[in-house]
Design brief:
Protein name: Exosome complex component Rrp41
Keywords: Cytoplasm, Exonuclease, Exosome, Hydrolase, Nuclease
Family: Belongs to the RNase PH family. Rrp41 subfamily.
Strand content: 25-35%
CATH topology: Ribosomal Protein S5, domain 2
Shape: globular
Distance between the termini: 46 Å
CATH architecture: 2-Layer Sandwich
Structural class: alpha+beta
Number of helices: 5
Number of domains: 1
EC number: 3.1.13.-
Largest sheet: 5 strands, mixed
Order of helices and strands: EEEEEEHEHEEHEEEHH
Helix content: 25-40%
Number of strands: 12
Enzyme class: hydrolase
Strand order of the largest sheet: 3-4-5-7-6
Length: 252
């Protein structure tokens, strides 16, 4: 780490946040007319769009599950999303992020409601600034609700990191690149964790503080997700509004 670079000044981070503050978040629902559900999300300088299609017929058919739907998740970073142009197409990292993100969302999807079908989730990163997997999961969760996919609850995702020996919430790019550890999680409103990863080294106590801080961040994000969905559907027919509010509410 560059010893000349200080990540804190008078207890405040380089972007003006305290150690327990999220980056600014903006969520828009229903941004794609041809998708069954969609969501655009800004999380700091991250720009992510998620689209959901389904339930629909599985192709090829030999992939069908007789008793449940399958969930597919494709994460992709656009070539122009990073400072140094990224080679187009999937790579090892995007395949790994796709896998863990699908596993984070699948437990809350009521797949038994639509056997022999598939729910496809596409997440495209338009601009990256650390934490794209968590932003993608958040956007995908809202897009699933927008598509009317039956779920037990929303999923919210956030990361904590270690910078200059201090645990911080929602690391930005320079903190992620030069920090000592990163712990992304995803969880239900009830606190059940569906994703937990760690990059770097933390003591047992540091890991506990990081997870607790990330969970607090997830709770804040959930409130934003829920409000956006309720606001979008509150002007519609009462039964549609009730269904949307239930989808964004506490766990079944």
């Amino acid at each position: 780490m560059d010893e000349k670079l200080s990540f804190f000044k008078d207890g405040v981070r380089l972007d003006g946040r305290r150690s327990d503050e999220l980056r600014p978040i903006k969520i828009e629902v229903g941004v794609l007319a041809r998708a069954d559900g969609s969501c655009y999300m800004e999380m700091g300088d991250n720009r992510v769009i998620a689209a959901v299609y389904g339930p629909r017929e599985v192709h090829p058919r030999h992939l069908q599950e007789v008793t449940r739907a399958i969930v597919r998740y494709r994460y992709n970073m656009a070539s122009f999303s990073v400072e140094e142009r990224k080679r187009p197409g999937p790579d090892r990292r995007s395949n790994e992020v796709s896998k863990v993100s699908r596993e984070a969302l699948e437990p809350v999807v009521l797949t038994s409601y639509f056997p022999k079908s598939v729910v496809d989730i596409f997440v495209e990163v338009l601009q990256a600034d650390a934490g794209t997997r968590t932003a993608g999961i958040n956007a995908a969760s809202v897009a699933l609700a927008d598509a009317g996919i039956p779920m037990k609850s929303l999923i919210s995702s956030c990361a904590a990191g270690k910078v200059d020996g201090e645990i911080v919430l929602d690391p930005m790019k320079i903190e992620d690149n030069l920090g000592e550890a990163d712990v992304p999680i995803a969880m239900t409103p009830g606190g059940d964790i569906t994703l937990l990863q760690m990059d770097g080294r933390l003591t047992k106590d540091e890991l506990k503080r990081a997870v607790d801080l990330a969970k607090a961040g997830c709770r804040q994000i959930y409130e934003i997700q829920r409000k956006v969905l309720v606001d979008r559907y509150s002007h519609m027919e009462p039964e549609i509004c009730d269904e949307a509010v239930a989808m964004a509410g506490e766990e079944i």
